[in-house]
Predict the structure.
Amino acid sequence: MSDKKPKIIGLTGSIGMGKSETAKIFERANIPVFDSDAAVHDLMAKNGAALDPIEKTFPGVSGPGGIDRVALGARVFGDAEALQKLESILHPMVSDRRQVFFRQKQDHDLVVMDVPLLFEKGGEKDCDYVVVVTAPAEIQRQRVLARPHMTVEKFEQILAKQMPDGEKRRRADFIVYTDQGIPHAEQQVAEIITEIRAR
């Protein structure tokens, strides 16, 4: 096994911009993707490592299937202190999983770290390159409001926590525009992979 580490591509974008779909495009190109949201789901699922510490901190939020995300969300939404407590439980666990994942992918030249709040949490410093996924605000709004249980108020509260799209694009090494369909996004991702490999 070589000591050469894969280059880390940070993948991020505001809610409804098409980041999850773009992550799938990278996976189809045989580039491993570490999905931070999926890791959190796993940690909070039945028998998940975060189950006990979250239940101790927020009594009554766990059920037979693990953490009740709706109940937990109600406890932390709009409460900065509660959210910080939750993040202090989850972030180290997610970080540990990410390190293990990257160690297992040493035979790849590139890996993707899919993190919704990459810039907001300072995660870009762990990346060699950052790809920001974007779409016009009107398309973003349509996509998000079409989701189940989503309200305008909730959407606006989520947006308020996220760095503005324009600022993310300004900080990006590469941008993927997702408003012209998947083939167009695939073409952009292929070009980004080629360019990173050429560097």
Remarks:
- The CA atoms of residues 59 and 179 lie 42 Å apart.
- The chain has a mean pLDDT of 94.
